[in-house]
Amino acid sequence: MRRRQLLALLGATAAVYSTEASQRAQAQEYPSRTITLVAAIAPGGAVDTVARILAEKLQPLLRQSVVVENRTGAGGMIGTASVARAPADGYTLLLMEPSAVLAKWLHKSASFDVIGDFTPIALVATSPLVLFAHPSLPAEDVRGLIAYSRANPGKLAVGTPGIGSPHHMAVLLLNAAAGIDIPQVSYRGSAPALSDLLAGQIPLIWSTPTAVMPFVEQAKVKALGVSSEKRVAILPRVPTIEENALPGFHIEAWLGVAAPAGMPAEAVLRLEAAVRDITKLPEVEQRMSPLGFSLDYLPAQKFRDLIASEHQRYGEVIRAAGIMPN
Prior knowledge:
Elements: H1 2-29, E1 35-39, H2 46-62, E2 66-70, H3 77-84, E3 92-96, H4 99-106, E4 118-128, E5 130-133, H5 142-151, E6 158-160, H6 166-178, E7 184-186, H7 190-198, E8 204-207, H8 213-217, E9 222-226, H9 241-244, E10 252-260, H10 265-278, H11 282-288, E11 294-298, H12 300-320
Parallel strand pairs: 1-2, 1-3, 6-7, 6-8
Antiparallel strand pairs: 3-10, 4-10, 4-11, 5-8, 5-9
């Protein structure tokens, strides 16, 4: 009996070592075939364009084909969930954006855990949000907006590209931090919200700055405040909300590369290094700038920390606002 038990134990140990050796060998050979980068949004927008720039630049660094696949629907949940369920072999990646950290708090049907179901690879880029106003609004900055809102309850509303976007979170954060109640008007994208702002149909919108800049220069729109911790170069005179009105206020849109949980460490390091090298390329910065994004690399562990902190922070904001998962 003891001999049989010993042989069984030796066999199990050998199997474990064999599996580990096989995983190490696969990781050292990685990648040996085409990699799919999933973008959980429709083709043609800024996020999709960033995905295609990344795929293009990853190919020579990894010496393998990288293709972008758009898997859309349910506010990004379908594409995100498909990557969570994919094999953890490094051949299915996700261009993750903030909707992934919001899904659990907004949707009962969310079928993935953004903390437990993914291996973060690297943060790629960030974009500040700006609170823009119609010129007729009698406020020149966020401090003035807060005062006006308190004196004129029910007279303001703010447009966003939809529930679950960083812009939506900016609405909730501003209301909570300032103790005001400016309701959100949800649009199908930033463009129709901007159109209504220009037409005077709505007094405020949250937007990334690039698309709105021509109208700021024509004095058809004014910028009240920037959501990032630092002022942005294309709006140097516009203060951050933190410096102007609400210490500690900051929110940004971001994009990063993630993979299914359980990725071999060697493959993670290979991808992490490739993304780092891409974010050092001036050409990539020049191509991303018109899209409203700045290259802002973070390695795997720091990207993991960002995902966890954003998930917790937005959960607290959503619960405080009384928003229940639908």
